[in-house]
Amino acid sequence: MIQIRNLKKSFAGGRVQALSGIHLDIADGEFVCVVGPSGCGKSTLLRILAGLDDYDSGQVTLGGTPVTGPSRDVGVVFQQANLLPWLTVRENVALPLRVGGGRREGADDVDRLLDVAGLKDFGGRYPYELSGGMQQRAGICRALVRNPRILLMDEPFGALDALTRERMNLELQRIWQATGKTVLLITHSISEAIFLADRVIVMSARPGRVLRDLAVNIPRPRSNDTIISHPDYPALAKDIRGLLTGQGEE
Ligand SMILES: Nc1ncnc2c1ncn2[C@@H]1O[C@H](COP(=O)(O)OP(=O)(O)OP(=O)(O)O)[C@@H](O)[C@H]1O
């Protein structure tokens, strides 16, 4: 579903090399987490996949089609939900349908998504009436409303407290299992990466490249309690931590 070949990207007229030859394949329906030292190019990689940034060289294809700009096959979630305060939750989630030319079944899609995200009773509320975690869930619904095949998430739960974050990981696992999307999620949290991912990609310090591709073969659905007691967990966490520490990350 996502194929990246020898992707290179620099800024400042070539003086800042952000990505140096990224190779990555992500299969349909796979959940992949990307971790790496601060500034290694994770957000740059996601923005290129989302069609929001161009790149210097290499190939980037989604479902076999080269990325040339934003696509309705891709939903994007950032650290802040950025809901429009003057619209209800339902209207916020439905916004991409209005902007991109609505479909008749749009309203059903919105209510089904709100239900899946545990926001069924909050469709008529305004963003200020929701907790941070609920706003982020609404942001995920908005990213999914046009039924994209791919969901790209950049530190989606980075601004939430630890317990809310754990609950959000559970919710996201549930939404992903219900929708079968291909997900690429960037995180600074090793435990979040192991909890969510089929594979954890560890990037090198800038200029970013793929340092290690680690499979997480822990059965689903995973829970916050069972994940850390799984026999694979300590070795995986140690491997990732070691790779990051070697790159100068705390
Ligand atoms: N628009 C830009 N102009 C110049 N340099 C940029 C620009 N965007 C990113 N960079 C540089 O490219 C590098 C990669 O940035 P990026 O935001 O992708 O890293 P990141 O891994 O997502 O970082 P973090 O984990 O801290 O969010 C950094 O050194 C950054 O300063």
From TrEMBL:
Q: Where is the ABC transporter domain?
A: 2-230
Q: Write down the superkingdom of origin.
A: Bacteria
SUPFAM superfamilies recorded for this chain? P-loop containing nucleoside triphosphate hydrolases
Q: Does the keyword Glycoprotein apply?
A: no
One Pfam match: ABC_tran
In the UniProt record, does the keyword Mitochondrion occur? no
Give the UniProt keywords, A-Z: ATP-binding, Nucleotide-binding, Transport
> Which GO molecular function terms does the record list?
ATP binding; ATP hydrolysis activity
SMART domains per the UniProt record, alphabetical: AAA
InterPro entries, per database record: AAA+_ATPase, ABC_transporter-like_ATP-bd, ABC_transporter-like_CS, ABC_transporter_ATP-bind, P-loop_NTPase
| PROSITE patterns, A to Z | ABC_TRANSPORTER_1, ABC_TRANSPORTER_2
State the similarity comment. Answer: Belongs to the ABC transporter superfamily.
Protein name as annotated: ABC transporter ATP-binding protein
